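User: Okay, second chain of the day. Same drill as before: sequence in, structure tokens out.
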Amino acid sequence: MLRLENLSKSFGGLKAVQDVSFTVRPGSIHSVIGPNGAGKTTLFNLISGIYVPSVGKVLFEGKDVAGLPPDELARRGMSRTFQNLQVCMNMSAIANVMVGAHLRLSQSLMAALLRSASLRRAEQTCREEAAELMRFVGVGKYVDAEASQLSYGALKRLEIARALAARPRLLLLDEPAAGLNHTETAEIEALIRRIAESGVTVLLVEHDMKLVMNLSDQLLVLDYGSKLAEGTAAEIAANPDVIAAYLGTAAVEGA
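Assistant: Same drill. Structure tokens below.
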């Protein structure tokens, strides 16, 4: 589904991502973890077209998409959420989800001006699909609400619904459990599992290690922008280099 080859990104003298290569299998949940400042979000931004790599390739379903803009990647089947909420608070909750489907809708100016029957039908279908996605992610009770009325946890789910409205084959989730309480985190974990079971491949950046270890088929560990380790949850949990990166070498030696 996704393959990175020797991917690097520098900002002046800062090497944010250095020579990173890994593969994401179709239908899997693949997580990227690492200490703060390890380059996880930079890596996501390179994959999703926000940044252009300094060196390397991003192969999505076998085609190099490095440097393509996010809208083109969305057309090709890649969608993402953000660490910091990107929700339009001056819109209704369902309109936020419908925005995610805009690439699939008619963009004819004349049809919009005339409010043609075909456009009205398409909008109604889009609204029904958005409502179903809201129910799928667990915010169905907010179909008639304004986005500003939703709690932080519900807004996190709403953003996931919007990303799913683009009908992606690859979904990038950037810290979906950040700022959530224990119950909300468990609900997000169950939602990510349902998304994967529906056939969508998931690439996940997350700090909650319990969630990551419960969900992931494969993990990539970054440290200072470089790949430190890769493997299953059991392999990563037992890797001394990973333990040292998170806890510090002195703490590991003391233990």
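The longest strand covers residues 14-24.

User: Thanks, on to the next one.
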